[in-house]
Amino acid sequence: MKISEYLRQQQVLLDMPCGGHGICQNCKVTVWKEGELRADAKEVLACQTEYQEGMTILYQGKEIKNGDNLMQGFPLPNHISGKEEGPQLIAVDLGSTTIAVKNMANGECAVSENHQRAYGHDIVSRIEAAISGQEYVLHDLAWEDLYNLFRRVDFDGNGQVIIAGNTTMQHFLEGVDVKGLSHAPFDAGDISFHKMEESDFYLMPGFSAFVGGDIVSGIYALDMDQSEEYNLLLDLGTNGEMVLGNKDGFYITSTAAGPALEGGNISEGMAGIPGAIYDVEIKKGFSRAKVIDNRLATGICGAGVIAVCAELLRDGCMNSHGILNEEYREEGFPVYSLNEKYVIRLTQDDIRQVQLAKAAIRAGIQVLMDEAGIEWSQISHVYLAGGLGYALNPEHAAEIGLIPEELLDRVEAVGNTSLLGVTKCISKWQKEGGSIEDCAAIHRIEKIPAMGREILLSNHEDFSMYYLSYLDF
Fold first, then answer.
1. Where is 344: in which H helix or E strand?
2. Cβ–Cβ < 8 Å for 256, 356
3. Residues 273-325: pLDDT tens digits?
4. Where do the H-state alpha helices sit in 153-282?
5. Cis omega (within 30 of 0) for bond into 185
6. Most Cβ neighbours (<10 Å): which of 88, 183, 294, 382?
């Protein structure tokens, strides 16, 4: 058993963007064996080093030694212990980076990081982890996060839950084998709207292995399936899902943007939660940062990373090729500092990750435009979805080439459209009454996947050309 697995059993989840392959170096811990002095301790990678009985592990200032297994286990989905005050209706966005829950009975909302991130910031890493024997762990982590959020919104288990997430996340939750998602022909399995076994939990339908129920929910939330005009929906997260179309149909795709635009694979990156830098202003090499909840900054989220890149360009601290000025090249640009020892930086490697992500997104947009055969002027709205979209300054996104400048005046940050679609559906159901299966909103949602034509960018003849052309800022 690796040290990382031992720590997981103690409910200590390391942040391993690479999925535990020893590449990202994020899981460094200090260890010493039984009988050794602390002075003899050495630094190792937890994902690559075997745990030995009696070993002491120092992680984030805490010593962990011979701890009991703190995993308590959880009841089945339809048996959450607690008080009963009549049926409740719960909306869930099961995101790769964050999970959001809303109790429709009391209006309470709660958000947390998805602790599956310990097994990789991207979906591919998690699929690999599942195939290598960690599928039950990923399943358990999804449920643990959900139950913790249920408690925070005072959900006692007496009610029904509708969940929207990408195809992989929904499979992990349901305990479905994800091997079919790892290789061609990418068999997505059952991605229809359906009720999970032995529970009152329902899963939103998806388009394919790559574009799931969260995007279907977003389309419904924004009424894109009923619009006469062309609209573009961009989910700027790890999977880079995009939808272009109107009531006559959609062109859909996803691109391996990676987690950089959500704060992953960034040296001091983090999800868009309290403590994250989400915006900056840089003048003459000095930075003024804005932090979520106005507290001490602990890292930079995706919107903040984009803002820093745009401001570095504007201030002349970085050129259009993404190369920092020489004075910042070795240690990175200081985005936020309290003193000489507490400095949050954006490094040259971080900027490279942003370039790779934004080139993938921008190239994907261009491919969809080509397939639809339309001009920029024909697009009515550009919807930026997800936590990144809500916090993102569209001008910064255009400055680094993430979105075309021609569309800047039509950009609208719409927040968590996945959760919005589920709450909208539940509200319609509450007004109608009857069973959820007979709800008109569900019938409408079930028709959306058939409206999509998926474009696989890996097979598209122009994608690589566009990708290379959009690497520069």
1. strand 343-346
2. no
3. 889 999 999 999 999 999 999 999 999 999 999 999 999 999 999 999 999 99
4. 167-174, 213-221
5. yes
6. 382
Three-state DSSP string of 304-316: HHHHHHHHHHHHC
- In the prediction, which pLDDT does 17 show? 67
**In whole angstroms, what is the distance from residue 291 CA to residue 278 CA?**
6
The domains of the chain, with CATH numbers, are: 3-65 (no CATH), 88-218 (3.30.420.480)
Q: What is the DSSP string of 417-446?
A: HHHHHHHHHHHHHHHH-S-GGG-HHHHHHH
Q: Which two three-digit tokens encode residue 114?
A: 């998805």
169-183, pLDDT tens digit by residue? Answer: 999 999 999 999 999
Do 209 and 167 touch, CB atoms closer than 8 A? yes
DSSP code at position 148: H
CA distance 213 to 419: 11
| 451 band by pLDDT with thresholds 50, 70 and 90 | very high
Whose tokens are 């990676």? That residue is 258
Distances in whole angstroms, Cα of residue 466 to Cα of each of 394, 442, 472: 21, 38, 11
Q: Vertex 308, ends 261 and 418: CA angle to 5°?
A: 30
Side chain identity, residue 9: Q
Name 89's bridge partners: 160
User: Is the torsion defined by CA of 269, 270, 272, 274 positive or negative?
Assistant: negative
CA distance 244 to 375: 12
Residue among 387, 383, 425 nearest 250 (CA): 383
Q: Which residues contact 75 (CB under 8 A, 6 or more apart)?
A: 81, 157
> Whole-prediction pTM value?
0.83
What's the number of CA atoms in the CB half-sphere (13 Å) around residue 451?
Answer: 22
Res. 70: pLDDT tops 50: no
In contact, 211 and 254? CB cutoff 8 Å? yes
Helix (H, G, I), strand (E, B) or coil at 318: strand
